[in-house]
Amino acid sequence: MKRPLRNTLKVHRAARDWTQEDLAERVGVTRKTINTIENGVFTPSAYLALKLARAFGVAVEELFQLEES
Amino acid sequence: MNRPIEAAYEKRRRYLKYHFAGVCAFVVTSLTEFGLRLSGVELARIRVFSLPLLILFVALQGLCVLRLALLHRSMKTDSLLAASLGDERVAHNQLAAWRSAFAGIALSVLGFAVVSTRYQVDLVYAALTSIVIGAGAYTGAFLVLER
């Protein structure tokens, strides 16, 4: 089942001048995982979404939003 | 690429690629030998060529498995590396790769079952080949998902 999910990871990353590798190290995943999340290929679990939000210091809703159907 | 996580990730990919190449080469050589035997060529004559190749390809697979085991061992002492290389996307892909392994074994067994209706098929040979095909299907599927 396709679960359309928009994300603003790239925007938040760019604002902090972090590379995908920087973010990956902060949340304990591979760079590839960050890349696939940013491109909407992989949908992270609630746990990982919360870790990403914590890394940026924002609410999880600021990072991930449901696509309007 | 000087970061330890990315370096280990690339190292794992490289070993998996060599392992997959070894499995493919082994299966092709083994099935060619099997086909030649079925067509009536004497086994001793085939083995002159196939045996050194089979040993070489098994050695390649063994070396890759050993290097992967050493990599996993080093992950045990580094919890961040272990968590990163086994993150949820990787775990998801590993699960999908297991499904491919099962499909590979099932198709191989089915193939040997069909062949056995006309020719004599050694059960041990069919079982071992199916297991190697399953291992190859797992590695191949994982590499495709991780590309």
Keywords:
heterodimer; A: 69 residues; mainly alpha; 434 Repressor (Amino-terminal Domain); 2 strands; B: 147 residues; 87% helix; elongated
Explain this structure.
Chain A has a single domain (5-66), classed as 434 Repressor (Amino-terminal Domain) (Orthogonal Bundle), CATH 1.10.260. Chain A has a two-stranded antiparallel sheet with strand order 1-2. In chain A, α2 crosses α3. With 69 residues, chain A is mainly alpha-helical. Chain A contains five helices and two strands, in the order βαααααβ. The mean pLDDT of chain A is 90. Helices cover 57% and strands 9% of the residues of chain A. Chain B has one domain. Chain B is 87% helix and 0% strand. In chain B, α1 (4-38) packs antiparallel against α5.
Mean pLDDT of chain A, to the nearest integer, reads 90
Radius of gyration of chain B: 18 Å
Q: SSE string of chain A, helix = H, strand = E?
A: EHHHHHE
Could you tell me the mean pLDDT of chain B?
Answer: 90
Count interface residues per chain for the largest interface: A-B, 15 and 14 residues
The structural class of chain B is: mainly alpha
Number of domains of chain A: 1
Tell me the major beta sheet of chain B: none
Structure in a nutshell:
Chain A has 69 residues and is mainly alpha-helical. Chain A has five helices and two strands; from the N terminus they run βαααααβ.
SSE blueprint:
The complex is a heterodimer of chains A (69) and B (147).
Chain A: E1 5-7, H1 9-16, H2 20-27, H3 31-38, H4 46-56, H5 60-63, E2 64-66
Antiparallel strand pairs in A: 1-2
Chain B: H1 4-38, H2 43-76, H3 79-85, H4 88-116, H5 123-145
Helix pairs in contact in B: 1-2, 1-3, 1-5, 4-5
